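pinging the channel bc i need a second pair of eyes. not urgent but kinda urgent?? the chain im working w is below, pasted from the shared doc
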Amino acid sequence: MHQLPIFLNLTGRTVVVVGEGEAADAKARLIERAGGRIVQAWERGVTIAFVAIDDEAEARTAATALRARGLLVNVVDRPDLCDFTTPAIVDRAPVTIAIGTGGASAGLAKAVRQRIEALLPSRLGALASVLYTARDAMKARWPTPADRRRIDTALAPGGALDPLDGAAADKVDAWLASEVASQASRLETIRLTSPDPDDLTLRAARLLGEADHIFHPADVAPAIIARARADAVRHVADATPQEAPAGLSLWLKMPDDF
């Protein structure tokens, strides 16, 4: 990963846009959609800056001046001058999907966005909003985080709340009121073939992204462990656990030659 993807809350914040023309107008529209206020020069309270100037020397000078004010700067179509780049966006508010290439190819990012746009139903954002409203009810019914992860099953392909089902938002109340089976203990073994996470099978990568608990020897490569979900509990162990906790647990088995 060459860039850290973040979502910046611009509501009520000020953003500098330097330049004129189509590129500057496009950035201005993007900022306005996010609730930002646009100015053409630095002022106190500015958050970030965009420079849309055709002449490279002028663009570099403007970016340097803004950066000296402590701002992060995006120089349109010049990734080597950028502190950050703007992605192609799939907007299903409050669900937002950003596709970036680190400035390598805006066309590629656009093509990927169009594929995702065609895949996702227009009411995906409604599902997110209903789930947000239902958070207190879910906590009341399933007090522990491990129990609440049963929503992963509901959101899985073909599940009760499959995100690709355009009617899923209308099914949350019924799912919450239904008799949902308790989280069973499930233990899977992943046999590592190298310390390189790029050598993980698709199945291993998927399980690492789903697991509640990761059991592993102390010398498993940190890059492998980093592929697990952030809230998964890590356990350093010398052997397969005799009794796995509720939910999905993984045992990362190391070969003897690395």
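so The mean pLDDT is 92. and The longest strand covers residues 46-52. — does that match what u expected or am i reading it wrong
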